[in-house]
């Protein structure tokens, strides 16, 4: 299984530096989740790791090779990426989309094979989309559409999968559905999964390894129970909260401070009690 790491990685757009001299190593065969505030560089880092953004300095290393010096198809046979909110041409069917995942294996001398077809069928089966294969992607629900894109990445048959906010715009039911699918892919096939998530509680539930990004670098990384605490939430998200143990999974669960109906009712009850005591 391939090793993915970043050495002294600096990223940016124009004169703006987003990530500065960052060093990380992605645990093989584990689920890693990138967390951090909006604009901290999570998606930028993920794009660079997929060779979609050229570093200003430093390197991303895949299987002991500088990824910038590898051929595109060589990278695509080892690592697949699902960007945020991908779009498909109108009228494209689920089957046609999933077949796109086999492009690294096609060429002038290599045509569509039984191995390609088997990989597509397995991807459809693993994502429970076999019965929807002839439906157009744009006719699917949000959760089904996301499954179709994940099926395409699975058809690439890579050891490593990168996903940028795979649960964005999905309701809670479909968020859990997608994350359960990715969890099963990791557990059953040993695939390395790296994704950006905004929901800290879900990140803690599904991740083996968490990387918190702040101030252009890594603020903390490790197992969720080792790094997610009140201090991290304050420094990384500038948010006061309570961190307790999830009663179902035993993972960290963040309860943010803030206003809400319960606190308002409590304050009203206390005010009423004080008024009655004065009378």
UniProtKB/TrEMBL annotation:
Query: Which part of the chain is the ABC transporter domain?
Result: 4-240
Gene Ontology cellular component terms for the protein in this record: plasma membrane
Q: How does it sit in the membrane?
A: Peripheral membrane protein
Key word Iron present? yes
The record's Gene Ontology biological-process terms are:
iron ion transport
Q: What is this protein called?
A: ABC transporter
Q: What is its main location?
A: membrane
Instruction: Quote one Gene Ontology molecular function term.
Output: ATP hydrolysis activity
Give the lineage: Bacteria, Bacillati, Bacillota, Bacilli, Bacillales
Keyword Transmembrane: yes or no?
no
A family per Pfam: ABC_tran
Q: Which UniProt keywords apply?
A: ATP-binding, Cell membrane, Ion transport, Iron, Iron transport, Membrane, Nucleotide-binding, Transport
User: Any idea where this protein resides?
Assistant: Cell membrane
